[in-house]
């Protein structure tokens, strides 16, 4: 059944799809009066809905009984050094499918892509749209927040609580499995993934000083996006 995002404030009176969602419903999906769809608010709530009227700018709906999905635990924040090209789009899409709660794009010493202050909000908005489309396709009712890119130094003091893991190629790491199995059902988790070429030694040391545990993801050197998917999947598997 087609899924559409209906913001929380639109559930109160006269629920209707507007903007890009209405355009997609009317012009791409060609919905008509009487058609059935599913709507979700991005905060974990979804409901069946019947289309009552269709126009170019608005799709009016009759909502059925809402269902509130329980939040996934742990709530995973993926802190990802921005890779070159369109790889960040892929990382956002797949991280949403794997159930992250938030994504923090990072600019590190070895990050090839540089994002100035004027461009940060634009990129965050673009990645937020990628996250929304991924939610619509995979059945995820909670839309992760995609934060504007920050420098590594700006973000690190605000990395949050719970289990904190940095994927690292430097000596002194422990197997990810060993680190995860020392925890019992954490409420939050932060997964820190570096750029092509990994973090600098100073960055890795700063992460460890901030409470991150350095983890190896195995003998094979993984691409940045593969490391992110590996780490998220391991967290989901261990604490499912």
Q: What spatial form do the alpha-carbon principal axes imply?
A: elongated
Q: What is the number of helices? A: 7
Helix vs. strand class: alpha/beta
Q: Could you estimate the helical fraction of the residues in percent?
A: 25-40%
- CATH first level of the largest domain: Alpha Beta
Number of strands: 14
Task: Characterise the protein shown here.
With 240 residues, the protein is an alpha/beta fold. The protein has 2 domains: 3-68, Ribosomal Protein L25, Chain P (Beta Barrel); 75-239, SPOUT methyltransferase, trefoil knot domain (Alpha/beta knot). 32% of the residues lie in helices and 26% in strands. The chain contains 7 helices and 14 strands. The chain has helices at 19-28, 87-97, 117-138, 152-155, 176-180, 201-209, 224-239; strands at residues 3-5, 16-18, 36-40, 45-54, 58-63, 67-68, 75-81, 102-107, 145-146, 150-151, 163-167, 174-175, 188-193, 213-216. Strands 7, 8, 9, 10, 11, 12, 13 and 14 form an 8-stranded parallel β-sheet that branches. Helix 2 (87-97) crosses helix 3 and helix 2 (87-97) packs parallel to helix 7 (224-239). It is elongated and about 60 Å long. The model has no long low-confidence stretch (mean pLDDT 94).
Give a quick rundown of the structure:
With 240 residues, the chain is an alpha/beta fold. The chain has helices at residues 19-28, 87-97, 117-138, 152-155, 176-180, 201-209, 224-239; strands spanning 3-5, 16-18, 36-40, 45-54, 58-63, 67-68, 75-81, 102-107, 145-146, 150-151, 163-167, 174-175, 188-193, 213-216.
